[in-house]
Amino acid sequence: MNLDIESASLILSAFLFAVGTAGVLVRRNAIIVFMCVELMLNAVNLSLIVFSRSLGLEAQVLVFFVMAVAAAEAAVGLAIIIAIFRHFEGVDVDRFNILRW
Amino acid sequence: MLSLPSLLQEAHAAYEPILPAWILLLPLIGAAVNGIGAFNWRENKAIPSIVGPAAVIGAFVIVVANFFAMSAAAPHDPTIVSLWTWMAAGDLRVGVDLQFDQLSMLMMLVVTGVSSIIHVYSVGYMREDPGYSRYFAYLNLFVFFMLVLVLGANFAITFVGWEGVGLCSYLLIGFWYENRDFASAGKKAFIVNRIGDFGFLVAMFLVFVHFGTLSFESVFAAAPATLAYGGAVVTAITLFLFLGCTGKSAQIPLYVWLPDAMAGPTPVSALIHAATMVTAGVYLVARSSVLFAMAPVSQAVVAAVGAGTALLAATIATQQYDIKKVLAYSTVSQLGYMFVAVGIGAYTAGIFHLMTHAFFKALLFLGSGAVIHAMHHAYHEVHSHEDPNDMRNQGGLKRFMPITFATMWIGTLAISGIFPLAGFFSKDEIIWYTGAYGYGILWGIALVAALLTAGYMTRLMVMTFHGENRTGSKAQPHLQEVPAVMWIPLVLLAILSVIGGWVNIPDALPGLPAVHALHDWLHPVFEPARGILEAHGVHAAHTSPIGGGEAMWAGISTVAAAIVILLTFRALIRRTWKPAAESAEPTGLAGVLYNKWYVDELYDRTIVLPLLALWRGCWRLVDAGLIDGSINGLAAGTRAVGWIGSLFQTGRVATYMFYFVTGVLVILVTFLL
Predict the structure, then answer these.
(1) A29 is a domain residue
(2) I need a surface site. Which of A98, B21, B87, B566 has the fewest CB within 10 A?
C-alpha cells in the first residue's frame, strides 16, 4: 500500500471522527460524551489542515475559529455538566430525559 | 303647531295627510322613553303614567284631524306618503310608504282610540306592578307596529307591522315571565304565528313573481288583467294570505294560541288579543279584497273557516270557568264572524263588526280586568292563593262593583246582538249577508253561534255578578269598586258600545232612519272588489235561504237572543256553584267542552310529539352521530398522529444523536450513489 501524506491524514481524520461519533452514541458518561465531541471537532480540524495544503491558508483560519468555538463550548458544556451533577448526583446521560413533553 | 281650521281649508282641494310621520313617531318615542325608563328609573311611575298614554292620545288627536281632513276632501284614490326607499334590488323596490285611504283611516281611528282608553286604564291596573315602565314601553311599541301594519302601502311594510305586533304580543303575553306557564304561553303564541307568517311570506313572493311589485295600489290595479278569475295563481295567493290570517286572527286551525294568550295582563288582552292585533287578519283580507273577489274558492274557504271557528269557539266558551278564557273564546268566535263577512264579499260588514267588536270586547275585557283587580286585591289582603280569575270564586259582585256591573251588562247585550246596541247592527248585517249571498249552511251556523254567544255571555255575567258571593268570608269585606282611572274607560267604551252601531243602519229596518255612513265611507276602497264580484254574477238576494226579509230576520235573531239571555239567566240564577277549590272536574259533554274539544291534546299527539320525536332522532343520528362523530374522529386522528410523533422525542441526547447520525449517513449515501 502506497499512501501519500494527504490521503493518510484524511483517513486518520475520518477514523477519529468515526471514533468520536461512536463515543457520543454509545457512552453514557457525560464527560466522555463531551470529550468525544471534542475529538470530532479536532478530526475536522485535521482535515481542514490537510485541505489547506492544496486550497490555501483560509482553511487554517477556519481551524482557529473551530478552536475558539470549541473552547467556548467547553466552558458552557462543562458548566451544564456540573449543574446536572448537582441536580441528579451523577452524569449518566441516560438518567435524565427531562427535555421532552 | 299648525291650526286645524287652516289645515282643513287646504285639505279641501286634495287630501294631504296631516303630520303623517308623527302618527307613527309619537308611539315610537313613547316606547323609547319608557324603554329607557325600564332600565334607568324603574321606581318612577310618574313618567310612564304620563308618557305612555300621552304618546297614544297624541297620535289619536292627529288621526282625528286627518279624519276630518279626509272626510272634507272625500278622495277617491288613496294618498301615498313615501318616507324613504327601504330596499331596491333589481326589479324590486320597496319603499317605506304609508297609505292613507278610508280603510286605513278607520283602522287608525279604532286602533289609536281604543289604545288611548286602554292606556289610561292601564295606569290604574298596572300601578302596583314592578315592571310598570317596561309594560308601557311594550304597549307603546305595539301601537307603533299596529299603525305600521294598517298604514303600510305595500305587502312588505304591512308585513313589518305584522311581525312587530306579533313580537309585542309575545313580549306582553310573557310579561310576567317569572311564571313558567306564562312564558310558555308567549312562546306558543309566537310559534303558532310563525306558521301563519310562513303563509303570508309565500303569498308575498307569489305576488312579486306575478306582478313584479309589492305595492297594494299597483297589485290591485293590475290584478284583474294579470291573473285569471278563479285561476290557480290567485287562489294560491289568497289561500296563503289567509293562512297568515288564521295565525294572526286565531282561526281554525291556528286559533289555539289565543286562549293561552290570556296569561298576559288583562289590558293587553283587551287591546291586543281582542280589539286590534287579532283583527289584523280581517283587515288584510279586506285590504286584499280585489284578490279575494277574484278567487271564489278562497272566498268559500275563508267564509267556511270563519263560520266553523265561530261555532267551535262559542261551544267551548259555554263551559269555561276562567272569566278571561270565556272572553278569549268569545273573541275567537267573533273573529270568525268577521271572516265570514269578508269571505262572502260583505267587506263593509266585516270591518263594521271589527269596529263594534273592538268597542264591546275591549269593554268586556277591561270589565273582567276590573273584576280580577278587585278579586286579586281582596285575596291579597287576606294572603289567600285562590284563583281570582275563576268565576266559581266570584259571584254576587254587583253589590261591590256597580259601575263595572252595569258597563259589563251593556257589553254583554251589545255582543249578544240586542237592539239597539252596536253588536245588533254589525252582527245582523253579517248574518243577513251570509244568507243573502246564498251560503245557507254558514247562515245557519252563524245564527246558532249567535244564540250560543248570548248564552255564554249571560252565564259569565250571572256567575260573576249575580247570586251568592263565593269569594270567602274573609276576603269578601275587601272587595271594592275600582278607582276612577279604571272605571272611566269602562264608561267611555260602554257609550261606544251603545252608539257604535248607529253609523250603519240598513234601509230594511222599519221605523229607523237609514244611515249609510260606514258604507259610503268605505265605498271607494271596496269598489273594485265589488265590481269584480258583480261582473261574475255574485249578488245579494232580498230574501234569506228559507224566506223572509232582512227586517224579519234581524227581529227574529234579536228576539231569540233576548229569549236565550232570559232563559239562561233564569236557569243559572238559582244554581249554586262551589268555589273552584272544592269543585270537581266537569264530566260528559261539559267535560269535553271544558277541555276545549281536546284540540290542544290532538295537536300535541299528531304534530308536536311526532315532530319532537323526529327532531330527537335528528339530534341523535345527524348531530350527535354524523356531525359530532366526524369532528371528534378528526380530532382523535390528529391526536393519534401526534402521539406517534411524540414517541421519537425521548429526551435522551443519545437518541437524538442517533437520529442525527443516521440522517447524515442517509444524506451521504444519497450523494455518493
Answers:
(1) yes
(2) A98
pLDDT 10s digits, B49-89: 999 999 999 999 999 999 999 999 888 889 999 998 998 88
DSSP state of B596: G
Any CB–CB contact under 8 A between A21 and chain B? yes
- Answer whether B282's CB lies under 8 Å from B167's CB: no
CATH of the domain at A18: 1.10.287.3510
Check residue B13 and give its pLDDT. 54
Set of chain A residues whose Cβ sits within 8 Å of the Cβ of B651: 96-100
Number of domains in chain A: 1
In this structure, is residue A101 part of a structural domain? no
pLDDT of residue B8: 47
* Residues A18-57 pLDDT 10s: 999 999 888 888 899 999 999 999 999 999 999 998 888 8
Q: In which element (H, E) is residue B295 found?
A: none
- Contact at 8 Å (CB) between A25 and B661? yes
From the list A21, A24, A101, which residue is nearest B649 (CB)? A101
* ipTM (interface pTM): 0.81
Q: Does B652 touch chain A (CB under 8 A)?
A: yes
Task: Note whether B649 contacts A: Cβ–Cβ < 8 A.
Answer: yes
Q: Is A19 on the interface with B (CB under 8 A)?
A: no
Cell of A57: 491558508
Residue A100 counted as domain residue: no
> In percent, how much of chain A has pLDDT > 70?
97
Those residues of chain B that have pLDDT short of 50 are 1-3, 6-12
Residue environment code for B344-373, b if the CB has 16+ CB neighbours within 10 A, otherwise e? bbbbbbbbbbbbbbbbbbbbbbbbbbbbbb
- What the block records as the C-alpha cell of B189 is 303564541
**How much is the pLDDT for B594?**
85
- Measured over the CA atoms of residue B623, residue B626, residue B629 and residue B635, the dihedral's sign is negative
Question: Residue A22 falls within a domain, yes or no?
Answer: yes
Interatomic CA distance for residues B293 and B237, integer angstroms: 12
**A1 close to B (CB below 8 A):** no
CA distance B632 to B119: 56
- Digit-coded pLDDT (tens) for B142-180: 999 999 999 999 999 999 999 999 999 999 999 999 999
Looking at the complex, report in whole angstroms how far the Cα of residue A7 sits from the nearest Cα belonging to chain B.
18
pLDDT score for B10: 47
Mutate one of B646, B647, B652 to test the A interface: name it (highest A CB count within 10 A): B652
Residue A46 is placed in which grid cell?
Answer: 485535521
Owning domain of residue A88: 5-95
Rounded-to-integer distance, Cα B161 and Cα B279, Å: 13
A35 touches chain B (CB under 8 A): no
- Inter-chain CB proximity B646 and A101 less than 8 Å: yes
Q: Which amino acid is at B450?
A: A
Q: How far is B664 from chain A (nearest CA, A)?
A: 12
Which residues contact residue B450 at a Cβ distance below 8 angstroms, ignoring those fewer than 6 apart?
B416, B417, B427, B431, B557, B560, B561
Q: Which residues pair with A92 in a beta bridge?
A: A29
- A37 to chain B: closest CA residue: B657
Asked if B642 reaches chain A (Cβ–Cβ under 8 Å), the answer is: no
Instruction: Give the pLDDT score at B15.
Output: 85
- Subunit contact B652:A21, Cβ cutoff 8 A: no
